[in-house]
Amino acid sequence: MSTPTTHEAAAFAGAALALGDDALVLSQRLGEWAGAAPVLEEEVALANIALDLLGQARVLLSLAGDEDELAFLREERSFRNVQLVEQPNGDFAHTIARQLYFSTYQRLLYGQLAAGDGPFSGLAAKAVKEVAYHQDHAEHWTLRLGDGTAESHDRMQRACDALWRYTGELFQPVDGLDLDHEALESAWLASVTDVLGRATITLPSGPRTGAWAAGAGRQGLHTESFGRMLAEMQHLHRSHPGATW
Amino acid sequence: MTSDGWPLWEVFVRSRRGLSHTHAGSLHAPDAEMALRNARDLYTRRSEGVSIWVVPSTAITASSPDEKDPFFEPAADKPYRHPTFYEIPEGVKHL
């Protein structure tokens, strides 16, 4: 392997940061369910998924710098996660819709990275197995909520509609990631369309790209609730710098 | 909210190939598929298992504690039924 140029090294660190922030922020959101999930069994399931994501975030952020500094001492504008993962948990249907959209994307993304010979292929090959379970979990709940009672159906439909506009951002090119974005997006759309169809949920028809779509998280622009989430995530480390146990 | 209304499931985990499934505990789940997934999260995430069974708790018929004596007492004084007179060959671990 030839020595990477300065640009390549910067792109690699930037890509690691983007993927690491996705995993870190979603992990924090899912962790918010601890003690508040609808049932104990589901709380454990969500915590497991959160811990998988935290593990991925630690590896990825370590590639970009010091993991603790990156997680706990950056300002909101320096985070590079997509806006989808920072969206509030909402009701259980919102959490599941967010999981469905994101885990489907992440599985396809890691699948492509694992198949390539880029710098992320090793960790992607490991993570893709974890993410396959996250997707399976989200799909099973989508089917049960969508095809469940009238109320669960309505809530699932609302959640899928509300988060739809954040999904276009997932397929914006990221410098440093060698991906076939068109294949990624069409496979994602096919998978989500199939699951929502089986769950008797109408595929949302709102815009996913362009002026009316949300999404500039990769550029450091985040939505209102993200600041509060960061404050909660970072306050301990900022209050007691270097604390250990 | 609680899981009231969700049936109870008994979970059996096989820890290694060649061993039998062992009762690991129980959990609530809306159906068998979800019970399997909950069991995976609750009982196998520290790589305790290679196979899981879930069984509706209502499908299990158990002996009653009241019947303990007629059920099990008669076996106690018949040592010839117990295979204690054999030497177990070396290398046999799970007998």
TrEMBL record, chain A:
EC number of the protein: 1.14.13.149
UniProt enzyme class: oxidoreductase
UniProt KW Protease keyword: no
A single MF term (Gene Ontology): phenylacetyl-CoA 1,2-epoxidase activity
Keyword Oxidoreductase appears in the UniProt entry: yes
Listed SUPFAM superfamilies: Ferritin-like
Domain of life: Bacteria
Record's keyword terms, sorted: Oxidoreductase
A Pfam family it matches: PaaA_PaaC
Protein name: 1,2-phenylacetyl-CoA epoxidase subunit PaaC
Organism: Streptomyces wedmorensis
Gene for this chain: paaC
UniProtKB/TrEMBL annotation, chain B:
InterPro entries on file: PaaB (IPR009359), PaaB_sf (IPR038693)
One matching Pfam family: PaaB
Superkingdom, taxonomy of origin: Bacteria
Gene3D superfamilies reported for this sequence: Phenylacetic acid degradation B (3.10.20.520)
The protein's name: 1,2-phenylacetyl-CoA epoxidase subunit PaaB
